[in-house]
Amino acid sequence: MIVKKTYKDQVIDHIYQLILTDELQPGDQVKESLLAVQMGISRAPIREALKELMTIGLVEYRPQIGNFIPILTPKQIIDSYTTRGVLEGYAVMIAGEMFSAEDLAQLDRYVDEMGTAARAGQHKEVVDIGGDFHDFLAAHTDNLQLLEYTNRLSLKLHVLFYKHWGLLYKPDEIEQRHRAIVDSIRSRDKAGIEQVIRAHYVETGTKIATVQAARSETAA
Predict the structure, then answer these.
(1) pLDDT digits (tens, 9 = 90+) for 109-135
(2) C-beta neighbour count of 14 within 10 angstroms
(3) N or C: which end of the chain has fewer CB within 10 A?
(4) Which listed CATH number (1.20.120.530, 1.10.260.40, 3.40.50.300, 1.20.1250.20) goes with 74-219?
């Protein structure tokens, strides 16, 4: 099935790519007029996209000044990762028995592909495959409210992980950490599933916050 993206969705994707490629960096202003020229569209869908990006923390609005890429504090980074871990851990825990043998095989394939991409130094592929892996996990819940809140954090965490993962984990660790999640689901131990997923996110959030804090001190 071909899914047609609205102009708003295209703007979100465009801004996301600008952030990934460092064309937009923390502290930079996001100018509606420039985006309109770049994309050849009116400002209306750009404003819609910016409002949505504000709800997920990728854009912040400063009254009477404009929209900016936020400079996240270490605490904000850890809080974002911890929250996603709590939401996803609970979502997978309550849906644990819904994962079929085929689902687990698909998760194994994601892990294999992630490991291969990490060893090849393909940063974007690692983030994209990791996003598919975690979205696949969360999608098994039938709690739509839970899924909505989980999805809201995805883009922000993808950006943070993309910019830092090479400093956080070795390629084999990338694979092992995600394999541990699949193994926990296979065990059908609900408490174990939730604990592994929460720890997965807390560890990464803490590492990113530490790296970013060290960079800020060096720059100062």
Answers:
(1) 999 999 999 999 998 899 899 999 999
(2) 16
(3) N
(4) 1.20.120.530
